Each structure stands twice: as C-alpha cells, then as structure tokens.
Amino acid sequence: MIAPSDRTPLPREFFDRPVLEVAPDLLGRTLLRTTPDGPIALRLTEVEAYDGPNDPGSHAYRGRTPRNTVMFGPPGHVYVYFTYGMWHCMNLVCGPEGQASGVLLRAGEITEGAELARTRRLSARNDKELAKGPARLATALGVDRALDGTDACAAGDTPIRILTGTPTPPGQVRSGPRTGVAGEGGDGDAHPWRYWVADDPTVSPYRAHVPKKRRS
DNA sequence: CCAGAGATAGGCT
DNA sequence: GCCTATCTCTGGG
C-alpha cells in the first residue's frame, strides 16, 4: 500500500528535459492509475525513447496530426495511441513544448491492484505477464484514447500520475536498441533508445523488427 | 520451450 | 500498404 504522503506526482520539470535523460530516470518509478473500480500501481521496468521530429521511429516525425497533437504540447502529459486495430500504447511527453519527444512505457510490475488488472488481462498466464509489453501495460491499467492528453503532473485525484518512488540505481539500468521499429535493422543505430531494469522478470522479450513476408 | 503464420483494422503516406 | 503489438494455433527441437 502506498502511503498518502508518497502520492505526490513528479513535477513537470522532471519531464522538461531531453528525452534520453528522462527515459532511464523513469525506471523504478511508480505509475499510479486511479479508476472508479480502484487504484492500480505499476513499477516501471522498461521504457523506450522517441525523439520527436528528428526520429524516423517517432509518430511526430512527419509533423503534427490530430492523433499526435498531444506530443507537441507541454511535457508531463500522457499521449495514448491506438495501433494494429486493437491495442493502445501509452507515452509520457518530454522536453519543452513543441519538441514532440516522448517515452513509450513498455513494461512494468503491478505492485497494487493486481486483482483489478487480472480482470482486464484474462489471457495473462501469471502476474509477471500482466504488463509485459506496451499494449499489455495499457490494457492492464485500463488506458485508452479517452485518457490522451491527461496531465500526469496535476494535483489532486488525477487518473494518472508518476510518483517519485525509488528510481532504479544507474548500475541496474540496461540499454539497447528499440524493439520492432522499422529502419533499425540491428547494429546500425548506436543510440541507446530502450532502457530496462537488469534481470527483471517483467521486461518484455527483445524482438527485432521483421519485415512481413510477401504472399506467394 | 521457441518460432512462425494469420488475424485484428485506424491513421497516415 | 505499412505501422512503437498481441493472441491463438501449429510444428519443431
């Protein structure tokens, strides 16, 4: 149980930094999701950085659209997108307004409200799978486009906030290439975009991007 | 246990 | 026509 005194959200200045600084600093922090059915707390174990218009993998690469408008807004807000016709994924906007950088929340450990999360993740075979993967994480937390633009730094009983918690010590942070992003075929890109907690069982397995085969 | 195939279907080029 | 993904089924080691 999280003490009421520990429920203060991270300040907006935390997110108003270069995305490659913010991303590893988010590991170990607690995301507190407040729903009408109860709270769910998640300890972040895997994240991925997207560097706005400079980054071909970013939704903001080709400029502002109705879908990605939140990315161009102030830091500390939640960007939620719908993908593959079924799933939602959740990002935190970073850097100054207009820069359109963000951190994709890829995996975490449910530390409170697991019973509620299980009702949303019926296919999970164990609790480590509840939020192992970005769309699983959003599903477990009950996050969809209705929460796009939510201010994670607001005071009061907000639906989403990131608590200071206990950040993962730098010695426990690992980094590597992003998963599943087209155009990063392995060793070419030296940038460490993906960060995770060493040896944590809730981190999603690495999947290199595989172009779809053409039907014969 | 792992890898691959097929399905899902909105947003954007 | 591809994409910041996942589920279920199938076949191999």
UniProtKB/TrEMBL annotation:
Sorted UniProt keywords: DNA damage, DNA repair, Glycosidase, Hydrolase
UniProt-listed InterPro entries: Formyl_transferase-like_C_sf, MPG, MPG_sf
EC numbers, comma separated: 3.2.2.-
UniProt keyword RNA-binding, yes or no: no
Span list, region Disordered: 162-196
GO molecular function: hydrolase activity, acting on glycosyl bonds
Pfam families attached to this UniProt entry: Pur_DNA_glyco
Coiled-coil ranges from the UniProt annotation: none
SUPFAM superfamilies documented for this protein: FMT C-terminal domain-like
PANTHER family assigned to the protein according to its UniProt record, in alphabetical order: DNA-3-METHYLADENINE GLYCOSYLASE
Family indicated by similarity: Belongs to the DNA glycosylase MPG family.
Family matches, as HAMAP family: 3MGH
Stated name of the protein: Putative 3-methyladenine DNA glycosylase
